[in-house]
Amino acid sequence: MNVSFKTGFLLMGFSDERNLQILHSVLFLITYLLAIMGNLLIITIITLDQRLHSPMYYFLKHLSFLDLCFISVTVPQSIANSLMDNGFISLGQCMLQVFFFIALASSEVAILTVMSYDRYVAICRPLQYETIMDPHACKCAVIAVWMAGGLSGLLHTGVNFSIPLCGKRIIHQFFCDIPQMLKLACSYEFINEIAVAAFTTSTAFVCLIAIVFSYTQIFSTVMRIPSADSRTKVFSTCLPHLFVVMFFLSAAGFEFLRPPSDSLSAMDLIFSIFYTVIPPTLNPLIYSLRNEAMKAALRKVLSKEEFSRRMVYVKAIFNL
């Protein structure tokens, strides 16, 4: 491939074989479309159904928007590279990819922490719920989530792309992955990035501790509820969130905390899918299947009566 790496990098992807590249692009495209449709459906349902205008679903809507953006950072570029049999990515594209990837991943950890606190207040302090989780507090929490993610993205991007590179600009991954990029750095030149990564990891660990504390209190309270139906209702809203938290954090933690290696195996590439592609695709399914309110709202939105009513409303708007 005759390209100049002075202005970009070469993403190796999953394979050099053309048939496997096509297969990879098709599978990624199907997964991407499922993730887009699932998260857009969650956002639409929560927006249209007045019964879901509560803090829990307000945060879930933002989580779905984060997932939609998160998977859009890496997957479309990977699909295009496979279809064109060209793994080149420009410096500007790589910088944007790193910024948005880190910013959205950090925001996702933050919003999951906020959601766990919301469940803690709702179950352990129900009489104070409306006071603590009032609309102004929810908006401030979401603003803090986005600001924290943006700051993390700026720090990592600024430090990572200020490091001198001594190796060939070949990244053994399907996106601009910071651990893989650090392997291209000159010796001892990436100490600043390690410091930023340590700060980000420490912050993520604090979030994990907060989530564990919240769910310890939640389960302690739930087990004291005498009614089995009430316990089932609480678990139906808490377990999906807990599963999403553990899946995302364990996959990301394994990738970023494991010892660095000079080579990247096929299993390493496949495992990276578990924190970049799978969570945004599965989250809508997990929340919609385990949540009775979401299933009821979904049936209502998809019903013929509701569809007809929306069509009449749309026609009335266009006739104005």
Commentary on this structure:
The chain is mostly helical. The relative contact order is 0.13. The longest helix is centred in the middle third of the chain and has 34 residues, at 91-124. The N and C termini lie far apart (57 Å). It contains twelve helices and three strands, in the order E-H-H-E-H-H-H-E-H-H-H-H-H-H-H. Strands 2-1-3 form a three-stranded mixed beta sheet. Helix 2 packs antiparallel against helix 3 (91-124) and helix 8 runs antiparallel to helix 10. It has one domain (5-318): Rhopdopsin 7-helix transmembrane proteins (Up-down Bundle), CATH 1.20.1070. 76% of the residues lie in helices and 3% in strands. Residues 38-287 form the G-protein coupled receptors family 1 profile domain. The chain crosses the membrane at residues 20-46, 58-75, 95-115, 136-155, 190-213, 234-257, 269-289. Its main location: membrane. It is found in: Cell membrane. Keywords: Cell membrane, G-protein coupled receptor, Membrane, Olfaction, Receptor, Sensory transduction, Transducer, Transmembrane, Transmembrane helix.
